[in-house]
């Protein structure tokens, strides 16, 4: 694994505009960054990332079975009591799921270490599935990558296949929804909707803010039509707090991701996985936080923190790092500190995508600090054949 500086495509901004990649720059700061790429060999991808991703995914699904049968685990994950039976029933019915992203610390020299699961509302999908693949093809055509370079990326094909698989189980009408003013979320939903259309699924789109409730407690669209199935790029724990949240368990609304996915996006899954698989090479020691002083070598994370918000890190050398954010109250976990490795002053986090139940690609976000926050940049990657690694092109 290497970080390789390279020339940007002179027309990449025009290409981004043409395909609807409207969030390549956020708040005047670059989000998409192709001034470098990460080079991997095939063993690093297949052995160190792909295989562990599928193993951890299977372990996580096994853990859902344990959680739904345990009031103690539901309490540890701070699942509100009115929603516990509904979540448990969604698992017992095996309501279909689509995708998820695991975040790993990995530098090419040891087992990838799982930081967390993003299994309810994962983003950075369009840029991983489509735009970095376009970058690969363009750079190969320009001779900017060694001949035969590849990418761990069958995300698009896997999404279309997964939508085709679950099509018969999707209630109609089917809508995609995200926050109206989030350019990134709207872009992600537009891409997923296109994948669903490619799979032959008729589907609409609306803003989360436009969801309505009928007189008998069912969810409706702007035309007051009852919604059968809703893909919502909106955290389930936030839906619980909305005025319509109380209607979810009895509304008959099918969700994608299904309610049981909230158990896996919750960071409380990490100590439960550690307790069940103590010593697993891809897991970090983790425990539910007792609220006391954070010792050296540990990280404190709120159960529902996203984008690196409200993280407290106490490094082995005594340094302390803290990030701000909206998750100041509520339970947390502790996870053993396994700092990201710096590559030329940049700290990459590997996002491994699982669609259906299959690992199918990665995306890399890098930050200038040890905590990957919403200001992190997305950097493409390539798989370089061993015989070509001595001629990486800058």
UniProtKB/TrEMBL annotation:
<keyword id="KW-0460">Magnesium</keyword>
<keyword id="KW-0547">Nucleotide-binding</keyword>
<keyword id="KW-0479">Metal-binding</keyword>
<feature type="domain" description="Glutathionylspermidine synthase pre-ATP-grasp-like">
    <location>
        <begin position="12"/>
        <end position="383"/>
    </location>
</feature>
<keyword id="KW-0436">Ligase</keyword>
<dbReference type="Pfam" id="PF03738">
    <property type="entry name" value="GSP_synth"/>
</dbReference>
<keyword id="KW-0067">ATP-binding</keyword>
<protein>
    <submittedName>
        <fullName>Glutathionylspermidine synthase family protein</fullName>
        <ecNumber>6.3.1.-</ecNumber>
    </submittedName>
</protein>
<dbReference type="InterPro" id="IPR005494">
    <property type="entry name" value="GSPS_pre-ATP-grasp-like_dom"/>
</dbReference>
<dbReference type="GO" id="GO:0016874">
    <property type="term" value="F:ligase activity"/>
</dbReference>
<dbReference type="InterPro" id="IPR016185">
    <property type="entry name" value="PreATP-grasp_dom_sf"/>
</dbReference>
